[in-house]
């Protein structure tokens, strides 16, 4: 319950644009996970999406769930 409260507090302080970009990034990862594969793999279009998102949104690393950059 406490983590939910802090998550809500942080989200309320983010700009609307950042929240929309994070939502878009998380939805893209859900799409990759829905593919019928044992191990999810990024396609060329997925890689292009993340390259574009990286240029537009400085907090892109925080939205990654499938892969954490090293």
Provide a short characterization of the protein structure.
By secondary structure, this protein is mainly α.
Walk me through what this model shows.
With 70 residues, the protein is mainly α. The protein has helices at 2-13, 16-34, 44-56.
Helix percent reads: 55-70%
Q: Name the structural class.
A: mainly alpha
Number of helices: 3
Measured distance between first and last alpha carbons: 31 Å
- Give the DSSP E fraction (strand runs of 2 or more residues): under 5%
Overall mean pLDDT stands at: 75
- Secondary-structure element order, as H and E? HHH
Q: Can you count the beta strands?
A: 0
Low-confidence stretches: none
Shape: flat
The profile of the biggest β sheet is: none
Radius of gyration: 14 Å
């Amino acid at each position: 319950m406490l983590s939910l409260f802090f998550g809500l507090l942080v989200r309320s302080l983010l700009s609307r644009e950042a929240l929309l970009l994070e939502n878009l990034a998380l939805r893209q990862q859900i799409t990759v996970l829905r593919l019928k594969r044992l191990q999810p793999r990024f396609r060329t279009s997925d890689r292009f999406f993340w390259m574009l998102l990286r240029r537009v949104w400085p907090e892109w690393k925080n939205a990654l769930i499938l892969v954490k950059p090293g």
